[in-house]
Q: What sequence folds into this?
């Protein structure tokens, strides 16, 4: 999942997405334990998606700008 897709979601959608990703991580763990999992790279992908969701949630709490185009403008103003 791309960060732009995550940023388009509302706060409640992000909470739901995080819950779904955590459930998926548990299902992957069970599949690995029962030796039904063939693609172990899914673990890192799901963990990264969870981290992306949590990052966007934290940015919103801190009030950090969601738009990347705003960041260079503020840096230029400080120079």
A:
């Amino acid at each position: 999942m791309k960060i732009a897709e995550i940023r388009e979601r509302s706060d409640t959608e992000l909470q739901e997405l995080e819950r779904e990703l955590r459930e998926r991580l548990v299902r992957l763990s069970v599949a690995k334990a029962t030796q039904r999992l063939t693609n172990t790279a899914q673990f890192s992908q799901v963990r990264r998606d969870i981290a992306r969701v949590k990052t966007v949630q934290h940015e919103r709490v801190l009030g950090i700008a969601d738009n990347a185009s705003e960041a260079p403008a503020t840096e230029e103003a400080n120079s």
Summary: Residues 3-78 form a domain with the Helix Hairpins fold (CATH 1.10.287.310).
